[in-house]
Amino acid sequence: MTAYILCFVLFSIGLFSVVRKRNIIKIIIGIGIMEYAVNLFLILIGYCKEGRVPILTEGQSIKNMVDPIPQAMVLVSIVLGLTLTLFLVAVAIRIYEKYGTFDITKINRLKG
Fold first, then answer.
1. In which residue ranges of the chain is pLDDT below 50?
2. What is the dihedral sign for C-alpha 54, 60, 61, 63?
3. How far apart are CA 76 and CA 19, in angstroms?
4. Vertex 33, ends 99 and 87: CA angle to 5°?
5. pLDDT for res 112
């Protein structure tokens, strides 16, 4: 139960960074923290105490199998999260080239 609460705290830190910060780079870091919190939560869902690999041989049954579906979802999520992060960094670089700042409040006041 403690691990789930820590996942929520980690997600809350990332959400706070996205909502309250004005620097685009800090917002991107906050989105990354939220992604990792969700990945950790998915891994915890598939965790089984003293779990074994879900590979069966003939005549064998495993009582405590680890669920492989959340692990596969996390692998896909990591790839998509990296793609999203690279896209956001590219957009941030273009914004900096055009406006010369990463501050959102200054960008909102500029026209052009």
1. none
2. negative
3. 26
4. 40
5. 59
61 backbone dihedrals φ, ψ, rounded to 5°? -130, 140
Which tokens hold the place of 64?
């405590």
In whole angstroms, how far apart are CA 67 and each of 4, 50, 57, 101, 109? 18, 12, 17, 46, 50
Q: How many residues does the chain have?
A: 112
Secondary-structure breakdown of the chain: helix, strand, coil percentages, each rounded to the nearest 5: 70, 5, 25
Global pTM reads: 0.84
| Identity of the residue numbered 26 | K
Q: Do 45 and 68 contact (CB within 8 A), yes or no?
A: no
Tokens read off for 108: 């909102």
Summary mean pLDDT of the chain: 89
Span 50-76, pLDDT tens digits: 777 777 777 777 777 788 888 899 999
Domain 2-49+63-109, second-level architecture: Orthogonal Bundle (1.10)
